[in-house]
């Protein structure tokens, strides 16, 4: 279970790094396009520079992609949180089981049925 969680976390981190790199590249392209539209000189184009139709379409596409990526990252974050919760629960159960001979303290009695070493089978 821990290996699965580590694999998922590594995958999410790699994917996030890729999306960040794409976002930085897209921002650079956008600034470059805005600089060309504004004449290239002066302090950053100013509010008078209007992007052309192609640039506006590219911006809209990037904003949509950014929204979709944020949703994917949030979904991955929730999945990792769920896996961490499950892992914590399983670790607590394992600690409880290790401390009382393999019998669950909240199980109601017959769940262990002597399958753990030392959990029954002795002489009465």
Rounded average pLDDT: 74
How many H/I helices?
2
As a percent range, the share of helical residues equals 55-70%
Strand content: under 5%
**Morphology:** rod-shaped
Radius of gyration: 28 Å
Task: State the total count of DSSP E strands.
Answer: 0
Summarize the biggest pleated sheet.
none
Distance between the termini: 38 Å
Low-pLDDT stretches are: 41-45, 107-124
SSE order, one letter for each helix or strand? HH
Q: Indicate the structural class.
A: mainly alpha
Structure description:
Helix content is 67%, strand content 0%. The chain has 124 residues and is mostly helical. The relative contact order is 0.10.
How are the SSEs placed, and which strands pair?
Elements: H1 2-37, H2 53-99
Helix pairs in contact: 1-2
What's a quick, concise take on this entry?
The chain is mainly α and 124 residues long.
Characteristic terms for this protein:
single chain, 124 residues
């Amino acid at each position: 279970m821990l290996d699965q969680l580590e694999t998922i976390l590594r995958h999410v981190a790699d994917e996030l790094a890729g999306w960040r790199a794409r976002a930085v590249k897209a921002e650079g392209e956008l600034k470059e396009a805005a600089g060309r539209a504004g004449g290239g000189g002066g302090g950053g184009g100013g509010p008078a520079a209007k992007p052309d139709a192609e640039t506006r379409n590219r911006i809209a596409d990037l904003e949509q992609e950014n929204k979709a990526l944020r949703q994917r990252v949030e979904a991955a974050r929730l999945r990792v949180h769920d896996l961490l919760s499950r892992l914590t629960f399983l670790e607590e159960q394992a600690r409880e089981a290790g401390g009382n001979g393999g019998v669950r303290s909240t199980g109601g009695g017959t769940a262990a049925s002597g399958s753990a070493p030392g959990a029954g089978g002795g002489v009465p």
